[in-house]
Structures are given as C-alpha cells and as structure tokens.
Amino acid sequence: MTPKKLLPFFIVVVAIVGLQLGLGALEKEFYLTQITMAVYNAVVVLGLCLLMGYAGQTSLGHGAFFAIGGYTSAVLTTYNLVAYREAAWAKLLQDLGVLVAQKGLYDGSNTLTVTCGAAFVAAMVLTLIVAVVIGYPALRLKGHYLAMATLGFGLIVYRILLGTPVLGAADGITGVPPWSLGFGLILSGKSAVRVQNYYLAWTIALAVLWMLLNLVHSRVGRALRAIHDGELAANAMGINTPRYKLQAFVASALLAAAAGCFVTHFNGGIGPSEAGSLKSVRYVALAAAGGMDNLWGGLMVSTLLNFVSLRGWFGTLDNAVFGVLLILIVSITPDGPLKPLGSGIRRAVGAVFNRARALFSRKVKHGAA
Predict the structure, then answer these.
(1) pLDDT for 251-282, tens place per residue?
(2) Is 277 exposed, middle or buried (0-12, 13-18, 19+ CB in 10 A)?
(3) What is the spatial distance between Cα 95 and Cα 89, in angstroms, rounded to a whole number?
(4) Is residue 136 part of a domain?
(5) Tens of pLDDT, residues 72-121
(6) Rounded to an integer, what distance in angstroms lies between the CA atom of residue 325 and that of residue 315?
C-alpha cells in the first residue's frame, strides 16, 4: 500500500492505543470487554460489505455462519473423548496434536478433547462446505429471492441448534476453554487478559480490513464491481459471474464463522440466538449504516453501534433506539457517515493549508520589498 493509504491505519492505531490508555487512566477498562466483542462482530460486517457492497448479493443468513463457526469450535473443545483414548485413531490424533488430554477443571477427571486450533480449522472446513452447498444454487437467484433463500437457511440452522441435545438445545454450550495462541497470547474474556484481547481483536479486524482493501482494488475487486453494476454486462465482458459471486459468498461466510469462533472462546460459550434471523438482519443493517461499499465505514460504525448495544445503555428500548439510529444514518448519509466526514476534514485541512500558504507568500513578498 502507498503511504497515503497507510495513513488511515496509522491514525486508527493511534486512536486504539489512546482509547485503551484513556480508559485505563479513568479506571474504566471494563469497557474493553464490550469493545472487543463489538470488534469481532464487525468482522462479520466486513464480510457482508464485500458480498453486498461489491458483489451486489444480499444475504440474511450470516448469523447462521457465525453460529456454525462458534458451535463447531464449542462442541469439539468441550466434548470428552476419553472413552476412545485407547483407539488407534485417538492415539494418532494425540500424536498429531489434534487431541489433548488434561484434568477436568472442577472434578479432576481425565478429559480428552480437540485442541482449539484444530477445532478452528474444522469450523472453517465445515463452513466452507456449507457455504458452497448453499451458495451454489442460491446465488443463481436474484433480488429478494436470494434474500429469502439465505433467510430460510438461517432459520433451519437456528431450529437445528434449538432442538439438538448434543448442541445444548435452548441452553447452548458453556465451558468452552480459552484459546492459547502461543507467544503468551490467550483468547479469553478473563479480566487478567482484557487489554491483551482488546489489542488482539483489533489486530485481527485490521488485518481482515487490509486484506479486503487489497482484494477490492485488485482484478477480482474490479470484476466484483462490474457484477454489482450490471451482471449481464459483466457476463458480456467475459467475467465468470457465478464463480466470482460464489467466491465472495464463501469468503464472507468464512469471516463470519471465524468471528463466531473468536467470540465463543472469548465468552466461554455460545447460544442458539446467535443464529436467529434478527441477528442476521442486524448485520445487514450495520453494513448499510457504514456504507455498503465502504469497508472503513463498516468497521468503525458497526463497532460503535455494537458497543452501544452491548453496554445496554438504552435498556429494554435498545432494539428500538438501535433501529432509529440505523434509519437516521442510512437516510442522512446513504454512503455511510465516514465519507462526508472525511470530505469535510479534507476540505477543512485544505482550507487551513491554503490560508497558511497565502500568509507565508505574503510575508515573503513583504520581506523582499
């Protein structure tokens, strides 16, 4: 990236560090817990911005992909396989580092579970398969038909989670272990690693943003924009629209599933409400509020609004106030609030610069005289 494109990253990093230091000085570091969760949820919105803002496809099922990632990791890291410890496949997986044996946290019993890293890989593979199976036929639909198909997929996943005992049914799954990432990094919601997880979440989100920005400015991004502007015209230009649409759908689904894994290990559990239709609709609304084709707006606006919602500042009126805020943002700034804000800042900085240059030129002329 050019220095001009790296400047926003530098400004955001300074703001992230400043926010953490400021909350620490005010003894309000507990806010970092909700900010961390909001950032992980913003990763889902970034994937939707790619799918909807650039590929022009509507999905109301990304809450289901979030749940698939989270539930897969939760089941594999909590289900005790100690009864199969003598089996050849179990010994092989232990040798490969896929399974880990340890003492139970409360009763001291032996446990044999899948490691967090292996569970994450399994979640990504499962999401990839499901996204291809769902996306291949669904992306041949257009407009509200595609939205209805993905909504139906989300409802199916929600009902499966709600009625399956091994998945915890209505209670969900608890006791999901922290994820040790190495180098002293632990993905967990415990207060002892609160600051560490705050920076970890932002690092992941900014890395995803950087990759997506490079993608949308590449040949693939130009193809996606062509599909968004006119699928028939894109086909006439020789663009393989089904392939690009499916790839965008799968990529956004994988981002949602990855965020689900991160949040599940951070919270230590997951419930079926994560796959609810309201959750998926909220992700779409957040993508619209940030500006469908504005990745920076999607990250910042969704983080802010999710944080406000997670803090519960509006109590039982949270959904109503949240909806009003989204309507106002979309109505007043259809392209997201960051674009007019950025234009205003650039105009203000330009005016100050021009004024300073004019004063300097005037002083130089007077000095020469």
Answers:
(1) 999 999 999 999 999 999 999 999 988 888 88
(2) middle
(3) 10
(4) yes
(5) 999 999 988 888 888 888 888 888 888 888 765 555 568 889 999 999 99
(6) 15
CA 207 to chain centre: 11
- Say what the pTM is: 0.88
Q: Which helix (H) or strand (E) holds 186?
A: strand 185-187
Say how far apart CA 119 and CA 72 lie, in whole Å.
Answer: 7
Residue 39 falls inside a structural domain: yes
Q: Which residues on neighbouring strands pair with residue 182, listed in sequence order?
A: 185
| Cα–Cα distance measured from residue 56 to residue 67, given in angstroms and rounded to the nearest whole number | 24
Backbone angles phi, psi at 139, to 5 degrees: -75, -5
Residue at 364 is within a domain:
no
Q: Tally the domains of the chain.
A: 1
- Domain of 281 in residue numbering reads as 3-336
Distance CA 101, CA 108 (A): 12
CB burial of residue 189 (10 Å; 0-12, 13-18, 19+): middle
Residue 346 lies in a domain: no
Residue 292 sits at φ, ψ, to 5 deg, of -50, -45
pLDDT tens digits for 288-340?
888 888 899 889 989 998 898 888 777 777 777 777 877 777 677 666 666 66
